[in-house]
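Late entry, evening session. Most of the bench is empty. Finally got around to the prediction I had been postponing all week. Sequence below, unchanged from the version circulated by S.P.
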Amino acid sequence: MFAAMTFREIHTIYLSELAPAYGAGEAQAITDLVFESLAGISKSGMTEHAKKKPDEKTLGLLLSSLEKIKSHIPVQHVIGFAWFYGMKFKVNEHVLIPRPETEELVLEAINYLKISPEKKVLDIGTGSGCIPISIKKNIPAVQITSVDISEDALQVAAENATVNNVEVGFRKRDFLHEE
């Protein structure tokens, strides 16, 4: 049954199955993000692809992603990334999803560090590395050290630093129990 479905039909299923839990607007935003990320179909491109059928791999990705989202796995974890401060960051179950209000904190830090770029920055609980990477990208001269207790989180942060072409000193530390 699913193999004969068009992108539009799958899109409609997403909306109908997500709307009860997320509301119509959020269901639309999640659906658009998944389709663009996993199928390469933007919101505006849906008209062009509406009657087309996805290949088997894409169909499997879309259907399995819907089940994950319905089980309350965050869409960013499902698609594997989140946008933060204009950059794409890998995210998974080992890191928190960057929050929009954290972008405000980064903006404040950048504005402060522009006045005093010789300052050193310590980021505790780095997770995806979005804060130190965003600061370093905007103020390359600043020296940043980031710590996290999780080796898995540090690996994600290091990958994000590489992808975003910045160098940040990531260290595994239990900040609450280190001297």
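Two things to note before I forget:
The mean pLDDT is 93.
The first strand starts at residue 81 and ends at 84.
Will write this up properly tomorrow.
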